[in-house]
Specification:
Length: 134
């Protein structure tokens, strides 16, 4: 796959069920590559993101809309790029992760903590939510 480079800040929003948890601004010293994603100290996460409220609320709304439109269940994480120079027009969705990571450096558990959902409570909710369909 080939696509045009999308300049701007790397941000993400986790959806848990029917609600968005928060927006994280992901800061790196270079590319957001494997080391930046998975190695301790590879990136810095600003939770909640220090961005204009219009951008923050749009990320939250777009993440829930994408989650619903794709028929996602449980937890998903929507990744964004935001080109500040273009304002709201510079906000794009990169992808929706239907099985976001659950490691010590993963974004969704970190966002859960920021929203008042402990890692244990998040895991419990995932199991209970999944078992409701049986």
């Amino acid at each position: 796959m080939v696509e045009t480079f999308a300049p701007g800040r790397e941000m993400t929003t986790t959806v848990m069920g029917d609600r968005a948890l928060t927006v994280t601004d992901i800061l790196t010293d270079g590319w957001y590559d494997y080391d930046a994603k998975y190695k301790e100290g590879g990136s810095r996460h600003v939770v909640p993101a220090d961005i204009p409220s219009e951008i923050f609320e749009t990320c939250m709304r777009m993440a829930v809309t994408a989650h619903d439109a794709l028929g996602c269940r449980g937890v998903s994480r929507t990744d964004f790029r935001w080109d500040e120079a273009r304002g709201l027009d510079g906000l794009i969705i990169l992808e929706v992760n239907t099985q976001p990571g659950m490691t010590p450096t993963s974004l969704s558990p970190e966002q859960g903590e920021a929203a008042g959902v402990s890692f244990g409570a998040l895991c419990r909710w995932l199991v209970e939510d999944a078992s409701c369909d049986r």
